[in-house]
Amino acid sequence: MNAHITLPLNQPKSKTKSKLWFNVSLVLTIVFLLSIAPVIGSLITGKYIQLLLAFLITTCFILAPVALFRNYIKLYTWLFLPIIVFVPISLFCVILYKLPLNLDIMVVIYNTNTAEALEFANGYILYFIALLIGYYWAYIYLTKKLPSKISWNNSLKISLGAILTFVLITLLIAQDITFKNQFKKNLTASFPGSLIYNSYLFRKQLNLINQHEEQVKDFKFNASQNVSLAKKQIYVLVIGESARAKNWQIFGYERENSPELTKKQNELIKFSNTVSGGYITALAVPMLITRASADDYDRVYTEKSIITAYKEAGFKTYWLSNQNDFEKIGMFARESDEEFYLPSNYTFGKNVNLDMELIPYLQNILSKNEEKVFIILHTLGSHYNYAARYPNAYDKFKPSLKTEKVNPTDDAKKEIIINSYDNTILYTDAVISKMIDLIKATQAVSTLTYVSDHGEDMFDDERKLSQHIEPVPSEYVASIPFFMWSSTTYQTSFKDKINNLNTNKDKPVGSQNIFYTQLDLSSIQYPNMDRSKSLASKTFESSPQRILGGDSKVYNYNDLKK
To answer: In Gene Ontology terms, what is one molecular function of this protein (predicted)?
Structure first.
């Protein structure tokens, strides 16, 4: 009888203990699923202390509110469903590019269309789908196994323990910054706090963009042209994509990948020391066409662009693009009198357009009876996937990505990747040369300026970086090609400007100089215009070469050199 009574008393205690550990393991597994991207990222990069910290901080973040949801534990875990949608995406970024999901990657995703996404994920779609299905199944299965509620005492212990652990971690690692700043950094740098914080910053940025038109509606440069010319005037600004100066024949590269422009060498002025203002397109392009700089980037949201200055000076303005110009770039493109985008819009029917397809649009504009014209062409240039940027006729350097399927970060196959990249420059050379020929045929007073938004990494050193995804940009992402062609009538009319350009061609230049130089080329001025920033001016002064990297950090170009 006594034995019969003792057994049930011991059994529930054993079951309770087992159930407790089972629930703890469930919770830790769920936490691991939520923190899997930074954990895997730390494993890949060998940063094991960061791995532990990432897991602990995520654990604290998730467990701290448990007391508030003690009667709705399953509901609490379901609340993370909108967040975990981004976990596999973050994991994909970590595995492929060794980077977590951050604000700049969100901006890139927002500006990326279906075709570009497929190009980046080429060869990984099935893996990603399998990861997605497996991840969601595991999360839902584990959540269903959790208890619906826990006691007040246990929930309070869990919440207080999580908060105290978080505070302790902050105290231990806060060295060069205050406790308050370290606390904020811990909250915003670890998942899911990082996702929530970066989503807030992204939304804030979109609001600024949406408010831009209203913000600048009364903005004026009060620009005017200080010369009167009898001939037609055509000024063209070509914005390249992901082209780095090091891989151009006309800038000393050993490969013959700019033969057409090499034939025009005597007509070109090449600027040998030019640095981009931003490491991604969304940051870099606005600094080419506005007065914003890496140190004064918020000016993007409070002023209009070079297009408005040309319009005020009496020019008809055009924006021609082979990209989907969303976000900040699009808000400036809309200032132009007319916008043209290549018609396929990256649909599956025709995956991508080639930059040469912009030529008929340019030709049509040049044939119009318009005396003063300013045209911006935004090309796709050397954007990855490199093999999609040029036709087979330009597949000169082989083996290339036209025939080989290669992971874009695989340094063992870098020869194939570099071959395709050099072929994109070969094709860009043909496109720019064709533009020059068309403009030259008009016999107008004219210039064509080419500058890339940013450069590209090509496994150049022991870091084995590729593309332009590192938040701390390399010197290869920062260094960009910049050159100018001018017609004989322009050279005759503006000898002083040509002399000044030649004098300044090897001086340190930043992309923020493009705005001032382009206006000065066209003899456009406005009150208090800073001519010391124009390469066409005799008062030009070398600008600080600064580039905006990830998390809005500004870097000196010289500090990036290896």
So the answer is: phosphotransferase activity, phosphate group as acceptor
